[in-house]
């Protein structure tokens, strides 16, 4: 395993690891959004509660969720290390221009965006995930089967204007983070070509808008419904 350790310990290895974990999380967000959109089904939370119960009791899904937490942790640690290395590199004067003026706001502030998203993840886990996992939810019965009423917790949280606003703002920052991270991940993996790169960047922007808007619309609709 020494070759693997040496490979990921270098800057290139860390960037590859950052890209791979990032792409996994990009896929996860699509799946997570699809599940969360069931909050807007208009059935009093039935679809969401059944979905959440099945997700929590499916062995394969539980295994994937543990992997997801691991990838998030690796992504965060890798991001911190690469940010510190980049800051150290900027102190050195290069003869070749880096074309920073052409860089997007998101690319220049990925560390800041990452910190904001980390704060959101912690708040999200404390507000929702912990309550779902520690068995403190009230029960609700559908067709003779008892389910934890996670919808009630989410509905109450999004009825609070401060939390709903915080959630929406964080989704805007998530969109910026994804817009750069999407194309950057593919470029790091070698998909950097004048023919394909513009398409990948446009696809990344489209993805980031749809995902961020998809998550943001949930608290907006639930708050307006009261």
Automatic annotation (TrEMBL):
Question: What are the TM regions of this chain, as residue ranges?
Answer: 16-35, 63-83, 110-130, 162-182, 203-224
Query: Does Transmembrane appear among the keywords?
Result: yes
Q: Name one GO cellular component term.
A: membrane
Species in which this protein is naturally found: Reichenbachiella agariperforans
Q: Which UniProt keywords apply?
A: Membrane, Transmembrane, Transmembrane helix
Give the NCBIfam families listed for this entry: sdhC_b558_fam (TIGR02046)
Protein name, as recorded: Succinate dehydrogenase / fumarate reductase cytochrome b subunit
Query: What superkingdom does the record give?
Result: Bacteria
Q: Which CDD domains match?
A: SQR_TypeB_2_TM (cd03498)
